[in-house]
Automatic annotation (TrEMBL):
<feature type="binding site">
    <location>
        <begin position="183"/>
        <end position="190"/>
    </location>
    <ligand>
        <name>GTP 2</name>
    </ligand>
</feature>
<feature type="binding site">
    <location>
        <begin position="120"/>
        <end position="123"/>
    </location>
    <ligand>
        <name>GTP 1</name>
    </ligand>
</feature>
<dbReference type="InterPro" id="IPR016484">
    <property type="entry name" value="GTPase_Der"/>
</dbReference>
<dbReference type="InterPro" id="IPR003593">
    <property type="entry name" value="AAA+_ATPase"/>
</dbReference>
<dbReference type="InterPro" id="IPR032859">
    <property type="entry name" value="KH_dom-like"/>
</dbReference>
<dbReference type="GO" id="GO:0042254">
    <property type="term" value="P:ribosome biogenesis"/>
</dbReference>
<dbReference type="GO" id="GO:0005525">
    <property type="term" value="F:GTP binding"/>
</dbReference>
<feature type="binding site">
    <location>
        <begin position="57"/>
        <end position="61"/>
    </location>
    <ligand>
        <name>GTP 1</name>
    </ligand>
</feature>
<feature type="domain" description="EngA-type G">
    <location>
        <begin position="4"/>
        <end position="168"/>
    </location>
</feature>
<keyword id="KW-0547">Nucleotide-binding</keyword>
<comment type="subunit">
    <text>Associates with the 50S ribosomal subunit.</text>
</comment>
<comment type="similarity">
    <text>Belongs to the TRAFAC class TrmE-Era-EngA-EngB-Septin-like GTPase superfamily. EngA (Der) GTPase family.</text>
</comment>
<dbReference type="InterPro" id="IPR005225">
    <property type="entry name" value="Small_GTP-bd"/>
</dbReference>
<dbReference type="Pfam" id="PF01926">
    <property type="entry name" value="MMR_HSR1"/>
</dbReference>
<dbReference type="InterPro" id="IPR006073">
    <property type="entry name" value="GTP-bd"/>
</dbReference>
<comment type="function">
    <text>GTPase that plays an essential role in the late steps of ribosome biogenesis.</text>
</comment>
<keyword id="KW-0690">Ribosome biogenesis</keyword>
Length: 438
């Protein structure tokens, strides 16, 4: 299910990050009494009155400075505004209406989105009459809040969720594998999708998806039905998207949550970047099956060890995802393109695989006999029993006499033993420790 999006915007130092942390329920954004602290958008999930949504914090908007960093922050905020279903526009009630507030207001009117104006730093009810000058900005919903103390936040969120669109999901057959193709700009995502569709020589029809302007593309290959999950803007080329080098993590997030398998496209010629790890981390935490596809391999100056070296580089950068297979292709020439969908099907099957309890416990027993869990402060740790409780991804509960004494390194050992014995290529697995009484 694709969740609606709420973006928090405003000029620097009005309390956006403090409000973000209060809505998210944890201290995620960096809060410091200096303008420009939030450099890039920060993401979390919010929930109010049973309605869940993605929440984006943005850097402070400024318009009279041509500094490169300020320009970058402005582009990031513009991306967030375009993606958002509802925008919380934060202003500083103590300092009053400023010229920059008016500039931000004009930008939001042009965006034609639902805007809720949060007049922040209204720490005492006697200050609430100061909000009236902000009606000049032309927004209907104007609410006094104190992000520091939480006053007014309930009224604010009531107004926000009242305007969120209902989430609708396209239904596909249970056997259909939903695949998203993600990665930084210019790594060849669209070329790969087009090559996959063209190589199968199928007639495809667009199906309206959950994300605004999304198009999911069905295809059938080798007897298997797939859906390529597209996201808002993947096919769209606008000024904002052409001028920013930063990949929209929110787009990846919204595609990932609707997918069974995520293809993460890396640039074989340009190498691995920090943003690749950020996007891969989202797929891993979401519990999706993953295939790394190293594109533009035709443009790499190679010898007989180049592929091995790059594979080791992938393993080094994505050590937390050692389970994910790596393919080397060229979307431009079609080199090894025939390997992609069969590998996607393979990891999708592993992602949905259920292991019998008897087999699972035999593997766990062999592992504990080979390497027993270490004693802690004279207390002997005993692994008692294991059972699989979910798929997509596989989730396994392991019962122990005292779960709190089981060190994370031993849990990692058990995971490695399960992978060695049972495979689980391409999918994370979730191991959860419980006591027998639980």
């Amino acid at each position: 299910m694709s969740l609606p999006v709420v973006a928090i915007v405003g000029r620097p130092n009005v309390g956006k990050s403090t409000l973000f942390n209060r809505i998210a329920g944890e201290r995620i954004a960096i809060v410091e009494d200096k303008p420009g602290i939030t450099r890039d958008r920060i993401y979390s999930k919010g929930d109010w009155s049973g309605q869940s949504f993605h929440l984006i914090d943005t850097g402070g908007l400024e318009f009279d400075d041509q500094d490169e960093v300020i320009e970058h922050i402005r582009h990031q905020a513009e991306l967030a505004i375009e993606e958002a279903d509802v925008i919380i526009f934060v202003v500083d009630g103590r300092n009053g209406l400023t010229a920059t507030d008016r500039e931000v207001g004009l930008m939001l009117h042009r965006a034609d989105k639902k805007v809720v104006l949060a007049v922040n730093k209204m720490d005492h009810v006697k200050h609430h009459e100061d909000i009236y000058e902000f009606y000049e900005l032309g927004f209907e919903a104007v609410i006094a809040v104190s992000s520091l103390h939480g006053t007014g936040s309930g009224d604010l969120l009531d107004e926000v969720v009242a305007h969120l669109p209902e989430s609708e999901e396209v239904e596909y057959d249970e056997d259909t594998i939903r695949v998203s193709v993600i990665g930084r700009p210019n790594v060849g995502k669209s070329s790969l999708v087009n090559r996959l569709l063209g190589a199968e020589r199928v007639i495809v029809s667009p199906v309206a998806g959950t994300t605004r302007d999304a198009v999911d593309t069905p295809l059938r290959a080798h007897g298997q039905d797939y859906v390529i999950v597209d996201t808002a803007g993947m096919r769209k080329r606008g000024k904002v998207y052409e001028s920013t080098e930063k990949y929209s993590v929110l787009r990846a997030l919204r595609a990932i949550e609707r997918s069974d398998v995520v293809i993460i496209v890396l640039d074989g010629a340009g190498g691995i970047a920090e943003q690749d790890k950020k996007v891969a981390g989202i797929a891993h935490e979401a519990g999706r099956a993953v295939v790394f596809v190293v594109n533009k391999w035709d443009a790499v100056d190679k010898d007989e060890k180049t592929m091995k070296r790059f594979r080791m580089e992938v393993e080094d950068h994505f050590a937390f995802m050692s389970y994910a297979p790596v393919l080397f292709i060229s979307a431009k020439t079609g080199q090894r393109i025939h390997q992609v969908l069969p590998k996607v099907k393979e990891v999708a099957e592993t992602h949905a695989h259920r292991v019998s309890t008897s087999v699972l416990n035999q593997v766990i027993q062999d592992a504990t006999v080979s390497t027993p869990p270490p004693s802690v402060k004279g207390k002997r740790v005993k692994i008692l029993y294991a059972t699989q409780v979910a798929v997509k991804p596989p989730a396994i509960v392991i019962f122990a006499n005292d779960p709190e004494l089981v060190h994370f390194s031993y849990v990692r050992y058990l995971e490695n033993q399960l992978r060695e014995a049972l495979g689980f290529e391409g999918t994370p697995i979730r191991l959860m420790l419980r006591s027998r009484k639980d």
